[in-house]
Amino acid sequence: MRGKLAASSSRSSNLALLLNPKTRTNHQSPSLLRRLSAEATHPTPPEPQPPNFSTLTTQVISLLQTHDNDWGNNDELRRLLFCSSDSTRSPPFLYKITHSLGTASKALNFFHFLRTNSPSPPDPLSLSYVFQAIFQLASYEQRNSHSELSKLLSISQEHGVPLTVNSATLLVRFFNRAGMIENSLLVYKELDTDKRNTNISNAMLLSLLRVGRTDYAFQLLDEMLVQDAKYPPNDNTVDIVMAALLCRDRNGKSVSDTKIVGLVKKFCEHGAFPSAVRLTQLITKLGRSGENDLAWDALHDVLNSGGNVEASSCNALLTVLARQQHFQKVNKLLAEMKENGIQPNVITFGILINHLCKFHRVDEALEVFEKMIGGGEAGDFSVKPDSIIYNTLIDGLCKVGRQGEGLQLMERMRLHQNVSPNPVTYNCLINGFCKAGEIEKALDLFEQMNEEGVPSNVITLNTLVDGMCKYGRVSRAMDFFRKMAEKGLKGNAVTYTTLINAFCNANNIDKAMGLFNEMSETECSPDAIVYYTLISGLTQSGRMDDACFVASLAKKAGFCLDTVSYNTMIGGFCRKNKLDKAYDMLKEMEQAGVKPDCVTYNTLISYFSKAGDLLTAHRMMKNMVRDGLVPTVGTHGALIHAHCLAGNLDKAMEIFWDMSSGLKITPNTVIYNMLIDSFCKNKKVEVAMSLMDDMKVKGVRPNTTTYNAMLKGLQEMNWLEKAFELMDQMTETACSPDYITMEILTNWLSAVGETEKLRRFVQGYQVSASAA
User: How far, in Å, CA of 92 to CA of 742, rounded?
Assistant: First the structure.
């Protein structure tokens, strides 16, 4: 039968019409190629066909399904496929027939049937569409579809069947999902460049960026971004690239922010724009990196190129600008939103009001609020504020001490905007009145809150307890705490910490310990701050054994003592003269991995200096330097004071000059006073006077203690004229004399008959001869 078909010239001509591209009409060729290069894996439906096209297709499909795979012996099927003179049959005709077979195996048999039964060599393009249907059917079968597609690709290559762009796109996508990037690249490279389009390029880009092949991805992107590119980018391209680059930290790749913004500009030049989500993500990321100018450029590149910019992207940029207090640019962006028809929403105004309040620019925040609700000039906006906007403004007013205005705003919120106050509203106001010391007003608001049915929470409780404790009403705070607990509003660790700290400050340690034990017995477990607060209170009261006990409980609970806690306890042991305990605490501190700081060493150096153990004090200072810490003014002051007390003035001066000249640490008034007093007591008034001159050179202001020490020394030397000069200096610098000054001068000047000068000094007049 196959020989009879080959001998028939009419059949040959019919098959040529069907499979040979040279014999197809001009109407069929270019339009079909365009339509069959669509983005989707599923083909775009062919152009409308004459009625007999549908009839013929239905007949062929019916015969193929009825006779299963025994197609070669079916004359009617062979006649319809190879003998008909209907010129409307084309690659879409074969595609539709192949696709209707339902399975890839049947479709592949049909491909072989066409090849072996065709009277003349089949047109490669027509076979390409047959294989497109085969690939699609294989992809539907899901199970190991990428493996099946690989086999089918090999078969198509063996028979020299070129891929359609739809086939290539399908293969690239499936290989991408299977992580077979090399297979995807081979498919893309083998596809004729004239057949490539934006969609397959997008699929390839997605694959390359997903596996971190950014170099090759950017090469492909460059091809798409050239002027008059054959396959220019579209919005989907932008989304693929932006999604990958904005998440680049996850795969360790690094693309500069400048390059990303540059890509956005190039995309815009091709009429491709990032979605609102991607643009918002980019601006947010740039803002977090401090690239405010780049964030501004990115949004304006899209806006000025005619892209769709939504309020969400503008809100992201407003957040960046407001955070950096670029309020001039904020106003400019708001004006541009209005010009471009981008309607600000409640989030837009919430961002502005929040940041203005955060920087205590409450009046400006109120102006924005009036514009928001349309309460200002014509052309203002009309956006209904929500409770968050009101709460932000009320909190801002309370933080700058304008809680009365905050209260008025709450009434306006309720009456004019029909927005109900919530717990946050009342908490802001209660906190404002508590900080201002108006506890009664805060309690009145609390009662009003309950009357209106607004539920109070633990923040309300903590705010009122803290306010009462800070203004000395600890007992009332305790009563309020108990009363709320009876009503079911129990405190948390913050509540207990506030009360424990208040009782420790009042030196009522037993009450503080009772609250601590109460926490342990209830479901409210103590946190680290509770432990640290109690350790500090016990240490300040000298109850070091109890402080150590609480410290041990903190460790058992899994909390490590911090530097402040260790320093507090070391200082407590030093005050108790328990040096061995202080040493043990220092060792424990180092073993726990907590490094001693300047406070730790200064505490120990001060203790050893006062105890006269100067050798140990100096050793501690060396350890301090060894640990990379710089000795402070307090460190040197402790050593200088100790040497002064020991009468070792030369060593004290050695430390002083090393401090001021070598370490470039300017001595303070206290250190100068120590040295001046010591030299005056040792009748070395000239040295003391030179130290006063050094104070003037270094810009350190002498105080009454300084002058008292000098006057006492001058009295011992009966150096009257110099005393008069110092008295004039005190007058010039407005340094008021105290009772010690008056005692020294009264005894001395009365004895030498200079009471008139004492009177003038008291009245604020100069007394020295040089001044006269």
Answer: 116
What are the Cα distances from residue 416, in Å, to 55, 410, 411, 420?
A: 72, 10, 8, 11
- Helices 528-540 and 563-575 cross at an angle (nearest 10°) of 20
pLDDT tens-digit series, residues 564-586: 999 999 999 998 888 889 888 98
Residues 6 or more apart in contact with residue 430 via CB below 8 angstroms: 442, 445, 446, 460, 463, 464, 467
Element holding 370 (H helix, E strand): helix 362-372
Q: Which of 318, 314, 332, 223 is nearest to 276 (CA)?
A: 314
Rounded-to-integer distance, Cα 264 and Cα 233, Å: 11
The rounded Cα 207 to chain-centroid distance in angstroms is 30
- Lowest mean pLDDT, pick from 12-26, 189-203, 416-430: 12-26
Which DSSP string corresponds to 318-331? Answer: HHHHHHTT-HHHHH
d(CA 439, CA 602): 41
3-class SS at 146?
Answer: helix
Distances in Å between the Cα of 445 and the Cα atoms of 163, 309, 406, 456, 692 are 77, 44, 12, 11, 59
pLDDT of residue 354: 93
Strands (E), 403-531: none
Distance CA(113)–CA(316), nearest Å, equals 61
| 68 φψ region: left (φ > 0), alpha (ψ -120 to 50), beta (else) | left
Q: Counting Cβ atoms within 10 Å, is residue 158 exposed (0-12), middle (13-18) or buried (19+)?
A: exposed
* Least confident span in 74-78, 151-155, 203-207, 465-469: 74-78
Provide long-range contacts, Cβ within 8 A and 24+ apart, for 692-696: 695/669
Cβ 200 vs Cβ 168: under 8 Å: yes
Length of the chain: 772
| Residue 110, CB-side half-sphere exposure with 13 Å CA sphere | 32
Side-chain-facing half-sphere of 73: CA atoms under 13 Å = 5
Does this model's pTM top 0.70? My answer is no
Cα–Cα distance for residue pair 268/272, rounded to 1 Å: 5
Report DSSP state, residue 250. H
CB 458 within 8 A of CB 492: yes
Average pLDDT of the chain is 84
Collapse the DSSP code of 647 into the 3-class scheme (helix H, G, I; strand E, B; otherwise coil) and give the result.
coil
Q: Mean pLDDT throughout 507-530?
A: 88
- Between the alpha carbon of residue 579 and those of residues 547, 593, 621, the distances in Å are 16, 21, 17
Could you report the per-residue pLDDT of 16-45, keeping only the tens digit for each?
A: 333 333 333 333 333 322 222 333 444 444
- Cα torsion angle, 206, 211, 212, 218, sign: negative
| Residue-level pLDDT at 379 | 54
Side chain identity at 74, as an amino acid letter?
Answer: N
Mean pLDDT of 105-132: 81
Burial tier of 543 (Cβ tally within 10 Å: 0-12, 13-18, 19+): middle
The pLDDT of 499-524, averaged and rounded, is 89
| CATH of region 568-719, choose from 1.25.40.10, 2.60.120.260, 2.40.240.10, 3.40.630.30 | 1.25.40.10
Alpha carbon of 659 to those of 21, 78, 649, 689: distances in Å?
A: 97, 109, 15, 20
Nearest to 268 by CA among 241, 286, 293: 241
pLDDT, position 253? 59
In 3D, which of 69, 33, 71, 31 has the Cα closest to residue 48? 31
pLDDT at 666: 86
Contact 119, 12 (CB under 8 A): yes
pLDDT single digits (tens) 661-710: 777 788 899 999 999 999 999 999 999 999 999 999 989 999 999 999 99
Q: Which phi and psi angles does 136 have, rounded to 5°?
A: -65, -40
Question: What is the SS3 assignment for 28?
Answer: coil
Q: What is the dihedral of CA 173, 176, 180, 186, to 10 degrees?
A: 50
